[in-house]
Amino acid sequence: MAESEAQYYDEDEDEEMPLTERDLADDAQWKLIQKNTFTRWANEHLKTVNKTIADLENDFSDGLRLVALIEVLSGKKFKHVNRRPNFRTQKLENVTRVLEFLERDEGIRIVNIDSSDIVDSNLKLILGLIWTLILHYSISMPMWEGEEPGPQEGGPTPKQRLLNWVQSKVPDIPIKNFNNDWNNGKAIGALVDAVGPGLCPDWEDWDPKNAKKNAKEAMDAAEKWLDVPQLIKPDEMTNPKIDEMSMMTYLAQFPKAKLKPGAPLRPKLNPNRVRAYGPGLEPKGNQVGAPARFTVETFSAGSGSLEITVLNPKGQKEQCEVVDNKDRNMTYSCVYVPSTEGEYKVIIKFGGKEVNKSPFKVKVEGAAGDASKVTASGPGIEKTGVVASKRTYFEVFTKKAGKGNVDVVILDPHGRKDTIRPSINLAPGKEKEGIYLVEYVALETGLHSVNVYFAGQQIPKSPFGVGVGAASNAKMCYATGRGIQPRGVRVKDNAPFKIHTKGAGNAEVKVQIIGPGGIEIKCIPQKSKTEEGVWDCSYIPTKQGQYIINITFGAEHITKSPFKVDVGPTKTSKIRAYGPGLTGGVCNQPARFTVETNGEVGALGFSIEGPSEAKIDCKDNGDGSADVTYYPTSPGEYAIHILCNEEDIPESPYMAEITPATNAFDASKVTAEGPGLAKSGVTVNKWAEFTVDARKAGKAPLKIVCEDDQHKAVNVEVVDKKNGTYTCKYMPKKMAKHTVTITWGGVQIPNSPYRVNVGEVSNPANVKVYGPGVEKGVKTFKTTYFIVDCKAAGPGDIAIALTDAQGKDVPVNTIDNQDGTFKIEYTPSSPGTYTVSVFFANSEIPKSPIKVNVESSIDLSKVKVVGLDTPIKVNEKREISVITKGVGKADGPAKVTATTPSKKKVEVPLKETPEGYVGNLTPTEVGKYTVDVSYGSAVVPKSPFTVDVTPGVDLSKVTVTGLDTPIKLGEKRNIAVITKSAGKS
């Protein structure tokens, strides 16, 4: 919009105008009014920083007052401004910074205006720039209380938006423009009285001939009691030459105007200003037995009593509960419960007179839907993330719930219902799915209660508690992780990092990553599921070179952003590192990790970067591995670089989070012992046990990690004996060296890690499988079983995978017979070839997979179909029965699908009965219908059925002769009834 309005001031539009005409145009009344209005508008904002302008044409030329104005409007400070611009180049630089900021940061498109126009005092284009600012900051951007939120895109223009708001406040006056409709002063009187009821209650009686007097009375009242400065004067408003832009600039102040205490209000009753809204007054969507809710707002109507009458279709009164909310908009919450179907009338009177649109006609349909089947999701009902004065939304899913209206009531932190009026509409493009889009704008910070109703009942989890936050502070945000380290990341690495925003308010987190040659790497922050205020990010660099990572919070860079990361080439290495010291530790406590070279030759090196220097000790174990210990002295994130020949190995640097020092525990006093920690003697597939004694170490969490030679985790079962000791066991699954690492409060205990050599193997080839469940004769829906015999196979666990003919998993029940055999039970639900896969000690046995033929246990020849053996008349309802009694249980319900002569598929809804299933088919076309009938996944005999659909009787084509003249008493008259063209009955 800013672009089109700015073009109104196109420099070329008067180039062909004669000099005398141009001079007259420069002094035109509308232009003088506009210049004065725009000057006053600018000064209203500049006075907050003790600045002012006297001459709009020249006072912006050095850029300083323009900078001050934009800082006030945007709430942001310019860092680089020449405060003493003595030269033209300095002035141009100041103005250029402003124009670039408006386009880049504020999203305002500036057309046909550059810095030289402002510096050279081009009044026409200066007016164009000011109008662009007014449009954006005073009309487009603010959220107005009482305004219905519209779609975020494709909504009304700023002019139409302001006009809509004015029209909603003064519906009794046909205001269609922002110039001559305001000349007689009555419109401004009506608007002032609507915003501050009682300030101008007699505006309807004002004489249009006293235009200036009318305007002055209303504008003076607005300035004194609504804080609306007179950006235009009464004689300007009543001037026939007043331009729309000046009027819009003045009127845009009213949506945010608040009535001051002590105003001399004069009451006047006006029922037409009563507003009534809500699902209970909608023409459709209400159901029998479901509470129908609506709200009546009397704020602008004066003092009077509210009377509500609800009449059912028989004209009988039904009870309507009315609750005075005692809020500032003087609203009443109303609810009635329809008892019968048909058209209801809701009559609303205020002060004894019916309000606008009363009586409301409400069509009530059958039984209400089921609110328990409705769900809602979206940012607008999350506990955090909603920002004050910024539109948010959520969706309500009603597809499976039946009939009913969606209603939303939002309570602000003070419990008021009238401050937030949500917009509720079917989601565009999702109407058939029953999805509603709810949008609203919270006006203040604090806990809000979002109550979602369907068919008058709260849906599950409603009300939703929503914490509305304030504006954001990007400088309180910071980033951690390997992905933002200056060195170590390599091509094709997954480079993760985290963005920490806790305490910084609510704002959008954005990440932009620019690689070598300007390539952009996609990176979408994901909200952490485990850490509050943390966003998880990662990217995969595709080229070697420098990457720039820009991280913004609310469009501002966070601390230390942008980050520069030098990405190295892809590298492979046999060197591996592991241990708790690579991920965390405690300040002033040793942090350990292990490096294994696995035969790779090279000079190992270590470098640790973080909040403090850290001493490093390295112990060579003599087996190609080394235990490394470092001593952090300050808390925070440390980058641990493990180098080979002065280059980071893959996955280096490792990121360790060091927590503050504590005296609560001492990991050096923890001991561990037992056969499960011995260098030898542990066998594969057998429990290896040990004990941890922490009785002298103080309280801290115990963590035990067991890994095999490929660094795959082995589960460790830990039992807390509640006396400071723990019994632990693990079962190794392969013959290889295992490493057991034990930490207490994140710090390794003495002698950790323990290196354990595991021996012995199992023999899956000796496993036997037999029994009726893997033989002939298996029937659907009959439980069967088979035996897995592992007596001669050695130690190991079994695993069974069973799939049906469609490849779907079939549940099995495994029973350990405690003698080396296992009974496997299952119940097939559909016929076909099943596949049984048997695994032992993580290996599939030689005879696996085993194929099992499952036969159906039902006799489809006994299924009967009734209702398709005779022709059907078009539009006649025909009952169809599928009789399955005595047939047996199928793998699904019966299904009837009709194909019309025009090849349309129509599924007949079926209801289950003691005899089987029954449904109704109503054909809408004449001709042959094909009807497919199935029971579960099987087609019943004789399906598909063919049914003739014949024409029905058309009474409009029946004619009668002989009755067109009176018949005398006793006279014999022949009467003919002609049915030739009416069809057969």
Mean of residue pLDDT? 88
Shape: flat
For the secondary structure, the number of strands is 68
- Fourth-tier CATH superfamily name of the largest domain: Calponin-like domain
Overall CATH architecture of the largest domain: Orthogonal Bundle
Strand count, sense and closure of the main sheet?
A: 6 strands, mixed
β-strand percent reads: 25-35%
Fraction of residues in H or I helices:
10-25%
Number of helices: 12
Describe the structure.
The chain has 985 residues and is mainly beta. It folds into 10 domains: 2-140, Calponin-like domain (Actin-binding Protein, T-fimbrin, domain 1, Orthogonal Bundle); 158-256, Actin-binding Protein, T-fimbrin, domain 1 (Orthogonal Bundle); 271-367, Sandwich (Immunoglobulin-like); 371-469, Immunoglobulin-like (Sandwich), CATH 2.60.40; 474-567, Immunoglobulin-like (Sandwich); 573-661, Immunoglobulin-like, CATH 2.60.40; 665-760, Immunoglobulins (Immunoglobulin-like); 764-855, Sandwich (Immunoglobulin-like); and more. 13% of the residues lie in helices and 33% in strands. It contains 12 helices and 68 strands. The strands form 15 sheets. Strands 2, 4, 5, 8, 9 and 10 form a 6-stranded mixed beta sheet that branches. Strands 39, 41, 42, 45, 46 and 47 form a 6-stranded mixed beta sheet that branches. Strands 58, 60, 61, 64, 65 and 66 form a 6-stranded mixed beta sheet that branches. α3 (29-46) packs across α7 and α9 packs parallel to α10 (211-225). It starts with a helix and ends in a 7-residue tail after the last strand.
What is the structure about, briefly put?
By secondary structure, the protein is mainly β. Helix content is 13%, strand content 33%. Strands 2, 4, 5, 8, 9 and 10 form a six-stranded mixed β-sheet that branches.
